[in-house]
Amino acid sequence: MIFLLAALIISYFLGSIPTAYLFGKILKGIDIRQVGSGNVGATNAFRVLGKGPGTCVLLIDIAKGAVALTLVGDHFHLEGFFSRAALGIAAVVGHNWTCFLQFKGGKGIATTLGVLIGLAIHFPHFQSVLLACVSVWLICFLASGYVSLASMVAAVILPIAMLITNQGFPMVLLGVIFCIFVILRHRPNIRRLISGQESRVPLFFHKKPRR
Questions:
Q1: For the chain, how many structural domains are there in total?
Q2: Is 208 within the bounds of a domain?
Q3: Residue range 59-73, pLDDT digits in tens
Q4: Is the pTM here over 0.85, yes or no?
């Protein structure tokens, strides 16, 4: 229990690293919470800081989830699914509610993806679920241009894919938890999507709205 508690604390603080905020401060001397969408995540980093820094933020945020589940778990010799899943949840909670920014963080999509990658590494039977979620995200994003919509649809698909592929109740429960996290964090986006005010990534094959 002591090892698990220590691993959970480390995973939380690892997830809490506000990557987009730090990049904004270091590269442009700005508080990313005050510009763009105000979100401390990769999508806003792309909008405000550019493709290069945005890509770095995305990869680091993914790594936070993957490292928490794999390397932190390995260091403390935590081999069971429940222990690994708890580390992943701790990392996502850290990203979403970081102690470094008054417990206001990002929306957890990249870090959740990192956790899913870590699960696929340790539990090969989970790879099909990871592939399904990534595929659904890409299809939805390319079709709509909305990162938020693609993320929410993929989050809903996560526990469904776990159920269809017979991953077992513990994994399905984990998928439900992550789905709830994503939907809760995207409540402002849901309101903007309904009102037609959500920011859309302009893809070259999307038709421009008529004026």
A1: 1
A2: no
A3: 999 999 999 999 999
A4: yes
